[in-house]
Amino acid sequence: MSTIETQYQQVVNRIHGACDASGRKRGDVRLLAVSKTKPAEMVEACYHMGQRSFGENYLQDALDKITALSHLSDIEWHFIGPLQSNKTRPVANHFQWLETLDREKIAVRLNEQRPEGLPPLNVLIQVNISDEPQKAGIATNDVATFAQQLQSLPKLKVRGLMCIPEDTPNEEHLRHQFERMQQLLLELQQIVPEADTLSMGMSGDLELAIACGSTQVRIGTDIFGARN
């Protein structure tokens, strides 16, 4: 097997092992392969191993890959970077998911710009779960209000929550933040019953995230190698 095949399988095995250890079904947690800065050829190699969902942070780089891989009809593109208001149209036109929604202005623009022929854009509300001033995301106390606002936008489909937790070696701090996210998803489901996604956990903490209810982990370097 190639290096990318080996690394991809190792990540899949880690996810399966974490599901087994926490008593969850393997199918309950999906992998988002974070392909930012990586060439389309590497994405396609991963696709041929069965991966379908890919995460991109940088818009122009992502658009180039989307064009190059347009022959892969069932590939699913997630925008996972900060989104400025002047960049909403390409996301509305070319992506299936936006995982970093935290402003009503962005939501309104995406709703207005989503083409008629496409299904609603799946969105995750980004939560600043560690309450760090330099981080994007809304406060935990504002999730319900924001979710209510999004209900009036028919071309957006609220699918759940996303977070980037505190960068800390303290596992108890991380566990507390992940468990709070799980609770917030339950609260969100009272407003949006179809919200089914909790995007949390990366290479260093995926086992803990899965134990705390994550339904999607975002893995880049461990699959594709170090960033270019």
TrEMBL record:
InterPro entries (alphabetical): Ala_racemase_N, PLP-binding_barrel, PyrdxlP_homeostasis
Essential cofactor(s): pyridoxal 5'-phosphate
Single GO term (MF): pyridoxal phosphate binding
N6-(pyridoxal phosphate)lysine: modified positions: 36
PROSITE patterns: UPF0001 (PS01211)
Signal peptide: none
Keywords, ordered alphabetically: Pyridoxal phosphate
Statement: the UniProt record of this protein carries the keyword Magnesium: no
CDD domains found in the cross-reference section: PLPDE_III_Yggs_like
Pfam family, one: Ala_racemase_N
Alanine racemase N-terminal domain sequence ranges: 27-227
The keyword Ligase appears for this protein: no
Family as reported in the entry's similarity comment: Belongs to the pyridoxal phosphate-binding protein YggS/PROSC family.
NCBIfam families (alphabetical): YggS family pyridoxal phosphate-dependent enzyme
PANTHER family in alphabetical order: PROLINE SYNTHETASE CO-TRANSCRIBED BACTERIAL HOMOLOG PROTEIN, PYRIDOXAL PHOSPHATE HOMEOSTASIS PROTEIN
Function: Pyridoxal 5'-phosphate (PLP)-binding protein, which is involved in PLP homeostasis.
Protein name from the UniProt record: Pyridoxal phosphate homeostasis protein
Source organism per UniProt: Thalassolituus oleivorans MIL-1
